[in-house]
Amino acid sequence: MRAAVLRKEPSSMPAPIDPIVEVRGISKSYGSTEALRGIDLDFPRGKLTSLLGPSGCGKTTLLKIIAGLIKANAGSIAVDGKVVTAPGPERAFVFQDFALMPWATALRNVAFGLELRGKARAEREEIARHYIAEVGLAGFEDKYPHQLSGGMRQRVGLARALSVDADVLLLDEPFSAVDEQNRRKFQEDLIRLRSNQNKTFIFVTHSIEEAVYISDRIVLLSPRPGRVSQIIEPEIDRSGDPDLIHRDKHYLDTVQEIWQGLKQYAE
Amino acid sequence: MTLFGYRVPMMASLLVWCVLWEIVGRLDLVFLLPPLSEVLSAAVGLVQTPSWQSATVTTLRAFFTGMVLSIVIGVPLGILMGRVKIADDLLGMWVNIFSSAPLSALVPVLMILFGFGERTIVAAVFLFAIWIIVLDTRAGVRHISPSLIEMARSYGASRRALYLKIILWAALPEILAGIRLGLIRGVKGVVIGQLLVAIVGYGALFETFSRNFRMAEFWALTIILFAFALLIAELIERAEAKVEYYAGAR
């Protein structure tokens, strides 16, 4: 068992070095339903942290609170030491259903964040072209979303998030609406992208394999109300062939360990 | 449709009815119905008369003024109702009542308010057209995916940008459908308004023709009106098809 289990209880954990996002005492209820209770979390700079848990554990809610899209009932979010309550340019969001404008080309969709910031057209399109190439969509700039497959649409969504040059990327189950083989390819590309983009990723997923495959850190959330139940740091070398990771012993052990922990919540 | 093994084009059915009309007209069964050929030659004569030309100008001006007003007021009103619950609660009932009410009954009231002139006709077009535009716009705004709104917010859209760059475009297919239906209702409004006022534009012509039993010209004018209404609906439908194409992936 090489995966280091850092804690079972939220309070007993030493603060990791240099957190970029600090979550303090976040609670959220929808009417009488308690979605999140007293979440305390630190997200280390430059790492990919996954929020993993069964449906109903509030992982997407937590991500949207960090994004400033949902207001929490209690607690605070700080990014780079500053408390934030609304969306800001230091965070960029990737949506589960892509959230692309169907009336705009891939190029305009990718450039949209910069367009909203009032960047001149030539400049923002140059940046957008760069990131479209970066996510492997060169040549598809003038296509409309309905002309692209699900995987390609999400690449547009990812390029849009990259092009605003935010420090923190928030990804809400980005591959769940993408078919299986494209998802595998996309995960590999994400690992590659991570190594040449110096960014912090916060990644929501319900797939154990996906979380272990791509994450530096996995935060396990338990459902009803959502709470932090465990934090795991898989020690997997991702520098080599991405296909080998799926056969890596530490990868398999960690998947198994998390499954043992989550089993109790399966219906 | 195939007949004796031959493919018959769609327009053929129209041709059958035209021939039927011609035969019934020639048989002189009903004096209300002159032969189609007579109606068509009356149409050719009619469009050359100054009275038809000035009536057409008056009618078109009233129609387009009324339509522009109902679009300029109807679309923002529909967006407001789609986005703000209080506005929807306050106005929803009335918009629904007016969109299905027999509005012809209200035209005499318009005459009292606006006098026996063009303003009443404009008001009639507006009254007939606006409600369906409001309802369809509202439905379009309601159907916008919440994540598209969240996307705009998360990338820092101002309120103005959110409405002009996202909401208006995302609801455009429904807005255009509303405008198309509004245009058809607007044609109704202009005709009914003019008939009731009876001294303006086509209303005056209809009045003259039917009072003097000039049936060929009466039918010619009717055909011209129908053709106009169909043409304008067709034009909007083309624009809609183009937008549907872009919005097809919603």
From TrEMBL, chain B:
<comment type="similarity">
    <text>Belongs to the binding-protein-dependent transport system permease family.</text>
</comment>
<dbReference type="GO" id="GO:0005886">
    <property type="term" value="C:plasma membrane"/>
</dbReference>
<keyword id="KW-0812">Transmembrane</keyword>
<feature type="transmembrane region" description="Helical">
    <location>
        <begin position="6"/>
        <end position="24"/>
    </location>
</feature>
<feature type="transmembrane region" description="Helical">
    <location>
        <begin position="189"/>
        <end position="206"/>
    </location>
</feature>
<protein>
    <submittedName>
        <fullName>ABC transporter permease subunit</fullName>
    </submittedName>
</protein>
<feature type="transmembrane region" description="Helical">
    <location>
        <begin position="93"/>
        <end position="115"/>
    </location>
</feature>
<dbReference type="InterPro" id="IPR035906">
    <property type="entry name" value="MetI-like_sf"/>
</dbReference>
<keyword id="KW-0813">Transport</keyword>
<keyword id="KW-0472">Membrane</keyword>
<feature type="transmembrane region" description="Helical">
    <location>
        <begin position="218"/>
        <end position="236"/>
    </location>
</feature>
<keyword id="KW-1133">Transmembrane helix</keyword>
<keyword id="KW-1003">Cell membrane</keyword>
<dbReference type="GO" id="GO:0055085">
    <property type="term" value="P:transmembrane transport"/>
</dbReference>
<feature type="transmembrane region" description="Helical">
    <location>
        <begin position="162"/>
        <end position="183"/>
    </location>
</feature>
<feature type="domain" description="ABC transmembrane type-1">
    <location>
        <begin position="56"/>
        <end position="236"/>
    </location>
</feature>
<dbReference type="InterPro" id="IPR000515">
    <property type="entry name" value="MetI-like"/>
</dbReference>
<feature type="transmembrane region" description="Helical">
    <location>
        <begin position="121"/>
        <end position="141"/>
    </location>
</feature>
<dbReference type="Pfam" id="PF00528">
    <property type="entry name" value="BPD_transp_1"/>
</dbReference>
<feature type="transmembrane region" description="Helical">
    <location>
        <begin position="60"/>
        <end position="81"/>
    </location>
</feature>
